Amino acid sequence: MAVIKLVPQQIPVFWEAIKAATTRADEVDAKDYPVYLNKMLHDLLNDKNQCFVRLTAERVLASILVTQLDDDLLSGKKLLRIKTLYSWQPVAPTEWQEDFKFLRDFAAREKCSRILFDSRNARVQELGASLGFKEVTRSFVLEI
């Protein structure tokens, strides 16, 4: 399978799939879709967020990854934040490792010192741990 970084001009072509992947992976409430999706689209079109897609050999969309280049608040250095990771079909551990190497190489080219992700999805947490990520914090919320 091939991983491809979309350029902003390609975002409209993949927008329906990006919407589905990001709202599912980030567990966005339907009432919050307008604000969430407007921000996502704006950031993708302005290259504040980056979108990567994995295509099968038959050129079928298999998964979507959305990242953001950001500043590390602890060190002041640049980091790559994984915002969304979503797959429509099972992915073998070797494929995740290949994808992660691609992502790591991208982060290195962008002069990032860290890759960071937040997720409450147990499967994504396990995947992160298997790739060498370590937990640094937990977030809690109280709705008012």
Summarize the structure.
The protein is an alpha+beta fold and 144 residues long. It has helices at residues 11-25, 33-45, 93-109, 122-130, and strands at 2-5, 49-55, 61-71, 78-87, 114-117. The protein is built from four helices and five strands.
Overall description:
The chain is α+β, with helices and mostly antiparallel strands and 144 residues long. The protein has one domain: Aminopeptidase (3-Layer(aba) Sandwich). Helices cover 38% and strands 25% of the residues. It contains four helices and five strands; from the N terminus they run βααβββαβα. The chain has helices spanning 11-25, 33-45, 93-109, 122-130, and strands at residues 2-5, 49-55, 61-71, 78-87, 114-117. A five-stranded mixed β-sheet has the order 1-2-3-4-5, sandwiched between helices. A hairpin with a 5-residue loop joins strand 2 (49-55) and strand 3. Helix 1 packs across helix 2. The radius of gyration is 15 Å and the shape is globular. The model has no long low-confidence stretch (mean pLDDT 89).
